[in-house]
Amino acid sequence: MPTLTINGVSLEFEKGQSIIDIALKNGIEIPHYCYHPALSVPANCRICLAEISQPNPKTGQLELIPKLMPTCHTAAAEGMVVTTESVKAIANQKAVMELLLINHPVDCAVCDQAGECKLQDYSHEIGRGESRFDEDKIKNPKKDVGPHVLLYSDRCIMCTRCVRFTEEVTKTGELLVEGRGGTEMIDVFPGVPLDNELSGNVVDLCPVGALLDKDFLFQQRVWFLKQTASVDGLTASGDNIWIDHHDGRVYRVKPRENPAVNQWWITDEVRYGWKFVHSDARLTMPAIRGAAPLDVARPDAAWREATARAALTMREGAKGGRLALLASPMLSCEDAWALARAVLAVDPCALLGVGPVPISGVDRTLAGGFTISAEKAPNARGVRRVLDAMAKMTPSRTTGPALDAGAFLAALTASGAGTVVATGNYPSDWVTDEMFRALSTRRLVLIDTLSTRLTPLAEVVLPSATWIEKDGCFENRSGRVQCFSRAVAPVECARSETEIGIALHSHSTGVAHAGARSAAALRAAMRGTAGLEAVAAAVDAPAATVSRASDMPRVSLSAIS
Length: 561
Hints:
By secondary structure, the protein is of the alpha+beta class.
């Protein structure tokens, strides 16, 4: 492969790659604002200029190009030598920073972008200690440009990333550049708000504090937040995400780059759809119908009593007829495996079904290749895969593989199933009229996150954890199996379906579960099940949780006094 040298480091590259692309992929930071690998390259911020020498094709001798060149717009060539650390290159970086800060309000103390702002970072690294500009600053207004986004025009550096995103990725074109020179600014077309399905991505694209998320505005300083790698738990896309949280509370969800799945983007549905995690409608304590409320102060005892009663209900149901399991497509593969194992241990011929899979419209692929999923369940394929594999492991079964929700409800009566273990875990009410009629006439063990009209009818209610509150893996619409990590602890006394399934299995069989209950341990246990090789072995594992800290020194007040 051809090679070039950037700041003294020899690097290989592929033909057609730009200098800045090679540098960033190899961990070499070149200051930049307008460049983004998914967008066109206008080369308008000029801070990435570098000194470049390249071999003369006739003599083979290195010759310095007399002017600074934009690394974002210059293709790499064999033998090229690039430096962004020369006196001339650094002088240009300082000049660009000085010009960008002339009209900037320098309001970092109240800006949501503080702590992850490129203008702030480069100002600290290469900026001047004080401004030489003595004239009045141009003041631009704050604008409400859409349902999710605010534009602070006086912070904008005109990198145009947001404009190019709406023109090239979403093809909706709501944003434009108006004016010239010092009065140039970003705006929306009259009567056309920034309201496409990916609108929140412009906040991630903005390298400064010009475009801000209304939902996150003034909520938390970013250096207090921890980032946990996760996967979209609301749709079948499998989009890779970061969950930003602090002290057990989620504050925002941002895209995590994965070129093979979601590139750099997520939909607004995924970005804002997690709010039910902290909903007042969450189920937080196990409950037994007709019994006194369980003791909140003794959660372990409450869970033992509730799971013992649920296991008893399952055993009685199996003696008097057929047992049934309705496993939600919102569950992880590990959850489905643990619950199916518990149910099949009581009734090997139990009826198995996958809960309703919400569909909205059709899949739509945008110009850049990003696909908006119409299927609003993260793991319908994974849950079905697990249930089918578990069914095949039971030779004495008289029923076939897992049924979809409609066929499951129809089969309840035909099979004589009088007791149902049903799971929800949807972000909203999932109980249709047909579902209510079918389940309300049977003994019901309900495992769910939100209260629904089935909750008061269930013989036992076991509160479960959302995907943000547990570990596991999902299989997306293209068959890709991906892990996700727990970001925050489950609310109050809620527990994952994996833990619930293990407890039910122990109570039903009298065999105590030995070993770890982690998702990784369950995947190891699933390796012996034919059909689950993709779940047990071919798993895309996420990065670890990332903690960020402020670089501002902390001083003890007692030391000052």
